[in-house]
Amino acid sequence: MNIHDYKDLYVLIEHEQGILHDASIELLGEAKRLKEDRPGLQYQVVAVILGTASQAMLHELGQRGADEILYLKNEALNTFSTERHTQVLYEAIVERKPDIFLIPATVLGRDLAPRLAARCDTGLTADATKLAFDPDHEDSSLLLVTRPAFGGNLFGTIINEDKRPQMTTIRPGVMDKWPKQEEHRCTITEKAVSLDHIPHEVHILEVLEKDHMAVDIAKAEIIISGGRGVGNGFHVLRTCAEMLGAEVAGSRAAVDEGRIDKAYQVGQTGKTVKPKVYIACGISGAVQHLAGMEKSDYIIAINKDPNAPIFQSANIGLVGDALEILPLLTEEIRNYRERPS
């Protein structure tokens, strides 16, 4: 393998029912940032999309930073199949030789990436939180991939010097989207792919839709989150959240105690969120939790312990019992809304 034959930044694009996955858009933004950090490489950002895509979807990919869209078209690929998707992407990698391949750490991505890396005989760094080029060599495309280790207590930086592509998965919500640019030019390379030569041992009999009543906290603008200190008082958080138009989430401790469902867990082993306002109630502020919410625009912490680490990350800190403070906030909001106009 001659690693100098490999070039460009590739991003796997996930989509469902005509909608692009936010995590893929975030990775396009990160690829665009990497490209601009190392202009001497003259790399292109290539969005790789499988299945069938509308013109509106392709247009948005261009607006979000893609210089080229590799459109691998086959309607059967709209439904995820581990073997089919792995083989189609492997063949594309062999043909096009990408230097860097970014994959969202979604359910699909976490299934696909290890198999794809193994088939390509390359390394994979999972759940990355930071990407950067080698700062000591300005002409180098070596990617420094930082990820948490030992339950989030340490962060390690991993490099892949001898194999290509450099492959990594990145958790949704960690990177920032690139602002839409209407004038950005993008090339579309459409290729009809055949699946006849790929073994298809697993057949999808039925796709069950997720409960649409369930809320994706990663998209919430205001979150009230409870930890062990809230105990069985999550109803107080929900009352306040209803008044604020917020969503309720929890720390791992609260989930482990059965106070809230894991789907609403924030942190290293839960979801990464970036709301406009994050209210942390009875949460100490362990690094594992901070990793999931530290990019929030505004953090309000309420804790009985004045030395709780959460206060070091908060914009506003209140020392006290959240179960006493939140009802006061709820009442103030109610009074404000009911005041004469």
Name a few traits of the molecule.
Rossmann fold; 8 helices; 341 residues; alpha/beta; single chain; 27% helix; five-stranded parallel sheet; seven-stranded parallel sheet
Task: Describe this entry's structure for a reader.
The chain is an alpha/beta fold. It folds into two domains: 3-192, 3-Layer(aba) Sandwich (Rossmann fold), CATH 3.40.50; 217-338, TPP-binding domain (Rossmann fold). Helices cover 27% and strands 26% of the residues. It has eight helices and 17 strands. The strands form four sheets. The chain has a seven-stranded parallel β-sheet, sandwiched between helices. α2 (55-63) links the parallel β4 (45-51) and β5 (68-73). α3 crosses α4 and α5 (234-244) runs parallel beside α8 (322-338). The radius of gyration is 22 Å and the shape is globular. The model has no long low-confidence stretch (mean pLDDT 90).
